[in-house]
Design brief:
The structure is a single chain. The chain has a six-stranded antiparallel beta sheet. The two termini are 14 Å apart. The longest helix has 16 residues. It has two domains: 151 residues, no CATH class; 160 residues, Chalcone isomerase (3-Layer(bba) Sandwich), CATH 3.50.70.20. It contains ten helices and six strands, in the order H-H-H-H-H-H-H-E-E-H-E-E-E-E-H-H. It is an alpha+beta fold. It binds heme C (2 copies). The site of one heme C has 21 residues, from strand 2, strand 3, strand 4, strand 5 and helix 9.
């Protein structure tokens, strides 16, 4: 992070000069400005500690908030147009000033993704750093963010994902899966790896990973997952809260994938299981129901059958 910031200061003066040029040429076009007015949603700040919030405000609110902060040359068209388009795209994916309207588990997942983006130097956008050479996240700020996220790997009880809407009594299934794959209690307290309410308006889904999976992510061991790595995909019915925000309704099901190369050799080295409803009824009419799971997960066998790959997913941005 440091190195790339230093290398960018050389281009700063050039960009400053370009911005002045734009200012002189662009007086006429100043009248044409896309609006950056406040979006409709209610403003509810994320449930994060003050130091974390300050970092988001300083480094990310410029684009990902209801109060975009523009330095003077951003206010000058056509630079303004580029920035305005970035802000609109940025808000569409993450708006930190409205993040507080989401369930806690979703807020944490977004924070997890945010720190990934910073670590990979994908955020703030590289092009933005050219014009704003001191806008990058410092090593100390990154350390603060990582310290904030660390406890969630081991979080348990009411402070875990459970607080985000998983009924806390979901610790015991009605029986094993028909293919013998066990229910894995504690899935609600595993680290949230990703979340999605995109492309599907009926369910909210969160993917959590056990400690072995989380360590593999941190050690950049992907895409081959180590023995014992496990994922849970938790689904709720999505409800509209009346302000256009989806919140978790009824708990629907939890699905597991657990890696044991030899034991589950017939299904790509993964044991698949699904438990449905608040009584966690094992899904599948016989031991071979998991060919259904493989039907979808098979095409991603190059990713070791796993869809959720937080790091490569993030790497797409700004690279
Ligand atoms: C100059 C504007 C700008 C700044 C500043 C900025 N971002 Fe972004 N960010 C964007 C844009 C634009 C996108 C959407 C990229 C795309 O189109 O895929 C984005 C996307 C993201 C995503 C979603 C990535 C994904 O694919 O799911 C995350 C997370 C994110 N930013 C985090 C941050 C964080 C954390 C900061 C502050 C450290 C930050 N951004 C600062 C413009 C910005
Ligand atoms: C219709 C396609 C489809 C079927 C069938 C399917 N999955 Fe998935 N699964 C996905 C997708 C797509 C994801 C990525 C997360 C998301 O977008 O919801 C996923 C994610 C998961 C995850 C989180 C890890 C990962 O790969 O990202 C688990 C665990 C999981 N599925 C288990 C199962 C089990 C168990 C079954 C069978 C009972 C199953 N899946 C059947 C499409 C499918």
């Amino acid at each position: 992070m440091r190195g790339s910031l230093v290398s960018m200061t050389g281009t700063r003066r050039t960009l400053g000069a370009m911005a002045v040029g734009a200012a002189l040429m662009g007086l006429v076009v100043q009248a044409i400005r896309p609006s950056l007015g406040r979006p409709e949603g209610p403003q509810v700040e994320a449930a994060v500690p003050a130091q974390v919030r300050e970092i988001l405000v300083r480094r990310c609110y410029a684009c990902h908030s209801d109060e975009p902060r523009l330095v003077w040359w951003d206010e000058v068209a056509p630079v303004y147009w580029v920035v305005a388009s970035d802000v609109q795209r940025a808000r569409a994916v993450v708006n930190y000033s409205e993040l507080g309207t989401k369930p806690l588990a979703v807020q944490r997942a977004v924070m997890f993704e945010s720190v990934n983006q910073i670590q990979m130097e994908a955020m703030p956008l590289q092009i933005y750093l050219l014009g704003h050479p001191h806008a990058g996240v410092t090593a100390e700020e990154l350390a603060t963010l990582k310290k904030y996220l660390a406890p969630f790997a081991a979080a348990s009880g009411p402070s875990g994902v459970a607080a985000g809407g998983i009924p806390k009594h979901l610790t015991e299934a009605a029986g094993p899966s028909p293919n013998g794959v066990p229910f894995l209690p504690g899935f609600a307290d595993w680290r949230v790896i990703s979340t999605t309410d995109r492309g599907d308006n009926h369910t909210l889904r969160i993917v959590t990973g056990n400690e072995i999976a989380v360590r593999a992510i941190e050690a950049h061991q992907l895409p081959s997952w180590p023995e014992g790595a496990a994922f849970a995909k938790i689904a709720w019915q999505a409800m509209d809260d009346g302000h256009g925000h989806l919140v978790p309704g009824k708990f629907l099901q939890v699905e597991f994938m657990e890696k044991h190369r030899v034991q589950y050799a017939g299904t790509g080295g993964w044991g698949f299981a699904r438990f449905v409803g608040t009584d966690l009824k094992p899904y599948g009419k016989d031991a071979h129901f998991d060919s259904e799971c493989l039907g979808c997960h098979g095409p991603v066998r190059d990713n070791d059958y796993v869809f959720t790959l937080p790091l490569p997913h993030g790497a797409r941005v700004g690279r």
